[in-house]
């Protein structure tokens, strides 16, 4: 009699499993497949194939059936947000009820549950960390020391930058190391002016071109991926048919598929990682199929957890066994703790009276950027760390009046003129990870897949409030020096998470007593499980995080293959 | 000259009678508001009053009355649909009270005066009906292919970005 269980297990066995197909999961898949590992990629949502599954990518405004508004029955699928979601990107939003959570404190958790994850929706800004960031916790006495330094990651930054295509300017700033850049997007007249004003008034402050994952000069490696030059459509979040910006869908996943080593399993909601008590290691992943609601198991030598920061926490917390009753690798009880994110509360806008004889042409999918200047080389304020600033002034507003009705209104609508240059700045502050900011499993409540609901309990601290105040003061001063008018600096008071940069909970560190992952992103106590998405972050620095996840993932994936080849995994 | 201008009218694709092959999403059953013939005519005349045909096309030529019907019927909750239909009745009521005629049979200046009478904080429901209708007509008109491709610098694929160029001395579209 054939052993069906054994056969099934054989058919469900791979060399590696990657949980999640987003920005970091795509990189894990690419590296593992290229190194010859038969790799199963698990994605809880539906497939989104490059180009073919971008249904709105080429639609003109007048081609949306309801002018962009969703019909009521589609609005209802998204709950309260439904009325505000535009038809052009509705297909990439998570539907209401897909994963219920408990907000013990308000937390805006944005999830991209489809193949490609949030890499379809991201803001595409990509800056390297420097040792001023990696050494931050050690210098300023928070979190734990990072087990890696810039030199550990630098070659991997280069590795992922060359493949992804990063536009940027060589600025030579120690706090924001240069990368492998394609030519940057232009700065506008106002941005150039602000750049000069800052340089003339502040020694440590610099306005630079945004560094972003857009192919401005396609190289052979991008053409091989089937990607072309960015066309400046600024319709990125509909999916880009040119592959002009980096997404897992346009880049890493098709590359991995081409090796013949990747199997993509969609509608696979990961329940937990299976730990084998006898082997003392993880042996596979248990999923719930979102269509038939049945449980399935897949097996592999190594597992990469790239489910997105908070969902990776959830999966590990839910991976319990006699050895790990509190979650996989969680001997010290710190799993799910020290969650942090970026503080985007500080906002500022103003008008520029200058350059009325100048304008811009075309569209800029990026913006400019001011790297962190507070507490850079020494502590100088009453708060820890600092903030970077995104700054935008790409085009003059178009002005027309809406006054009157009839012929008067018509004349007004046709009387379009160039308006003023407006400028805006947004804060990207480092949030200090503290133990009380945490996620945990709810003891009773489950989601529709029978998976415990995640309780989110994160809040601002006084350090964040002080930083917002300083941002508003400093930016106002800089705007005044630039001659901007109608300056409006404000604290948006937004909830944690609205930055979509949530990190931590499974932090890296040297000491298994105070961290979950070692310097290679292996769980200290379960070495064949690697966590390389935002969950692994010991601290957040001020940079947009995706590039660092990519580099950390590529580094860990290559290490994992080396370890397999050395017989250690 | 008109023939050389690009014209696509709002709502074409929603009307199987016009272009049966172009219903974009078969899962969406496109509904219409439950309007009487009079309400339908008044909607058309209201849209025409906001943006009449002049030396350029008006809102009715761009089918914006049919677009609004479809938009409100499919994308707004029932209470708001009712408020909108009530607004159309309000126009009819004022026309009957003032001119002893139907709104749709009035000349443009009388129709303008009725609508402007609603553009007044004291008009309560009338004011919100006026504001909503005007905004929707403006949105639809300024997103139309006719308007964007003929009267603005609309370009789906600019292909590049120059951050600082001189404002041309000759007239240009913005």
From TrEMBL, chain A:
Record keyword Amino-acid biosynthesis present: no
Domain of life: Bacteria
Cofactor: FAD
Domain Glucose-methanol-choline oxidoreductase N-terminal: 103-321
InterPro entries cross-referenced by the UniProt entry: FAD/NAD-bd_sf, GMC_OxRdtase_N, GMC_OxRtase_C, P2Ox-like
Ranges of residues in domain Glucose-methanol-choline oxidoreductase C-terminal: 433-552
Keyword field contains Oxidoreductase: yes
Keywords: FAD, Flavoprotein, Oxidoreductase
One Gene Ontology molecular-function label: flavin adenine dinucleotide binding
Pfam families tied to this protein: GMC_oxred_C, GMC_oxred_N
Family statement: Belongs to the GMC oxidoreductase family.
Protein name, per record: Choline dehydrogenase-like flavoprotein
Taxonomic path: Bacteria, Pseudomonadati, Bacteroidota, Cytophagia, Cytophagales
From TrEMBL, chain B:
Pfam families per UniProt: Gluconate_2-dh3
UniProt xrefs under InterPro entries: Gluconate_2DH_su3 (IPR027056)
Origin superkingdom: Bacteria
Full protein name: Gluconate 2-dehydrogenase subunit 3-like protein
Taxonomic source organism: Cecembia rubra
């Amino acid at each position: 009699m054939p052993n069906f269980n054994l056969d099934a297990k054989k058919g469900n066995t791979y060399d590696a499993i990657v949980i999640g197909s987003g920005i970091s999961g795509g990189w894990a898949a690419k590296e593992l497949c290229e190194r010859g590992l038969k790799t199963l990629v698990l994605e809880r949502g539906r497939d989104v194939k490059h180009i073919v599954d971008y249904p709105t990518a080429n639609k003109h405004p007048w081609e949306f059936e309801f002018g962009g508004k969703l019909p009521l029955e589609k609005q209802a699928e998204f709950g309260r947000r439904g009325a505000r979601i535009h038809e052009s990107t509705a297909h990439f939003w998570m539907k209401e009820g897909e994963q219920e959570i408990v907000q013990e404190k308000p937390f805006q958790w944005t999830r991209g549950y489809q193949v490609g994850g949030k890499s379809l929706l991201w803001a595409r800004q990509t800056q390297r960390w420097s040792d001023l960031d990696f050494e931050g916790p050690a210098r300023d006495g928070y979190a734990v020391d990072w087990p890696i330094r810039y030199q550990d990651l630098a070659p991997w930054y280069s590795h992922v930058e060359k493949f992804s295509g990063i536009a940027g300017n060589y600025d030579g700033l120690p706090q924001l190391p240069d990368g492998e850049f394609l030519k940057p997007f232009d700065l506008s007249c106002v941005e150039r002016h602000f750049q000069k004003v800052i340089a003339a008034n502040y020694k440590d402050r610099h306005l630079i071109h945004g560094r972003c994952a857009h192919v401005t000069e396609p190289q052979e490696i991008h053409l091989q991926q089937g990607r072309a030059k960015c066309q400046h459509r600024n319709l990125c979040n509909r999916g880009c048919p040119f592959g002009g910006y980096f997404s897992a869908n346009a880049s890493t996943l098709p590359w991995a598929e081409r090796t013949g080593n990747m199997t993509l399993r969609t509608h696979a909601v990961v329940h937990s990682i299976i730990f084998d008590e006898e082997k003392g290691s993880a042996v596979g992943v248990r999923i719930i199929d979102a269509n038939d609601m049945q449980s399935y198991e897949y097996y592999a030598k190594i597992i990469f957890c790239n489910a997105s920061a908070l969902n990776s926490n959830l999966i590990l917390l839910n991976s319990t066994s006699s050895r790990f009753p509190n979650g996989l690798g969680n001997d010290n009880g710190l799993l799910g703790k020290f969650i942090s994110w970026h503080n985007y509360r500080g906002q500022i806008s103003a008008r520029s009276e200058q350059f009325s004889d100048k304008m811009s042409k075309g569209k800029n999918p990026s913006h400019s950027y001011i790297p962190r200047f507070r507490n850079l080389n020494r502590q100088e304020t009453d708060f820890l760390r600092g903030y970077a600033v995104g700054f935008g002034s790409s085009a003059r507003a178009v002005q027309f009046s809406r006054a009157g009705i009839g012929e008067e209104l018509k004349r007004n609508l046709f009387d379009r003129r160039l308006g003023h240059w407006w400028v805006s700045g947004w804060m990207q502050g480092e949030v200090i990870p503290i133990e009380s900011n945490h996620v945990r499993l709810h003891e009773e409540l489950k989601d529709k897949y029978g998976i415990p609901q995640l309780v989110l309990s994160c809040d601002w601290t006084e350090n964040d409030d002080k930083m917002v105040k300083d941002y508003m003061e400093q930016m106002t001063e800089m705007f005044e020096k630039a001659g901007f008018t109608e300056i409006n600096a404000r604290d948006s008071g937004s909830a944690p998470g609205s930055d979509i940069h949530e990190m931590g909970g499974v932090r890296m560190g040297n000491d298994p007593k105070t961290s979950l992952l070692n310097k290679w992103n292996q769980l200290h106590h379960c070495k064949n499980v690697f966590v390389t998405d935002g969950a692994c972050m010991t601290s957040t620095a001020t940079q947009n995080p995706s590039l660092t996840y990519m580099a950390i993932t590529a580094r860990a994936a290559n290490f994992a293959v080396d370890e397999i080849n050395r017989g250690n995994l | 000259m008109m023939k050389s201008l690009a014209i696509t009218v709002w709502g074409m694709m929603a009307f199987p009678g016009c272009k049966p092959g172009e219903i974009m999403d078969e899962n969406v059953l496109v509904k219409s508001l439950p309007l009487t013939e009079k309400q339908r005519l008044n909607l058309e005349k209201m849209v025409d009053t906001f943006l009449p045909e002049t030396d350029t096309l008006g809102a009715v030529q761009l089918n914006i009355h049919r677009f609004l019907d479809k938009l409100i019927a499919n994308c707004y909750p029932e209470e708001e649909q009712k408020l909108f239909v009530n607004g159309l009745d309000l126009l009819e009521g004022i026309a009957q009270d003032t001119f002893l005629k139907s709104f749709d049979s009035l000349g443009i200046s009388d129709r303008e005066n009725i609508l402007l009478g609603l553009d007044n904080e004291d008009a309560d429901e009338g004011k919100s009906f006026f504001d909503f209708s005007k905004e929707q007509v403006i949105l639809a008109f300024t997103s139309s292919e006719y308007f964007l491709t003929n009267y603005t610098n609309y370009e789906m694929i600019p292909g590049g970005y120059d951050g600082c160029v001189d404002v041309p001395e000759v007239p240009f579209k913005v």
